[in-house]
Specification:
It is a single chain. Helix content is 76%, strand content 0%. It is an all-alpha fold. The chain has one domain. Helix 2 packs across helix 7, helix 4 packs antiparallel against helix 7 and helix 5 packs across helix 7. The radius of gyration is 16 Å and the shape is elongated.
Length: 138
């Protein structure tokens, strides 16, 4: 179990853009030390999972304007519970046991933070998501 925890922490990318200080809430600290590195690590997987989601929903996403694509991503992440739970599982599966124990103490607030970060990652990748469909169609 200790090897798993060490391996999980070792593969996470460094996230130097955030500072950690004593004035942070427990949720913010967890977000910056655990959620952000895991979500960054999983970024490419999230993009592929969203592409698959779009394909299974008749590729409607690819016919939308950039603004509507952003709305589509927001609605999908916040309202499609099956998809949302799948995304959460991709993050939670990379928690250490100790991190999971911290997570379950305030999972509701941490889920909101988690989904907002994932949503922003997908929105940041909206061009890449849209371009691959065009390339595949050629």
């Amino acid at each position: 179990m200790i090897d798993r925890d060490l391996d999980l922490k070792r593969i996470r990318p460094d996230f130097m853009t955030t500072t950690i200080n004593n004035g942070m809430s427990t949720e913010e600290r967890f977000q910056n030390l655990v959620l952000r590195p895991i979500i960054k690590l999983q970024n490419d997987l999230f993009v592929e999972v969203f592409k698959n989601y779009a394909a299974k929903h008749k590729n409607v996403f690819y016919d939308l304007s950039v603004e509507k694509r952003v709305d589509y991503i927001e609605n999908t992440v916040h309202k499609d519970m099956k998809f949302r739970n799948s995304l959460k599982g991709m993050v939670i599966g990379l928690f250490t046991v100790e991190e999971y124990q911290l997570y379950i103490q305030n999972s509701s607030a941490l889920n909101k933070r988690m989904m907002n970060i994932v949503k922003e990652r997908l929105i940041d990748n909206v061009q890449a998501i849209g371009n691959t469909a065009t390339l595949a169609a050629v």
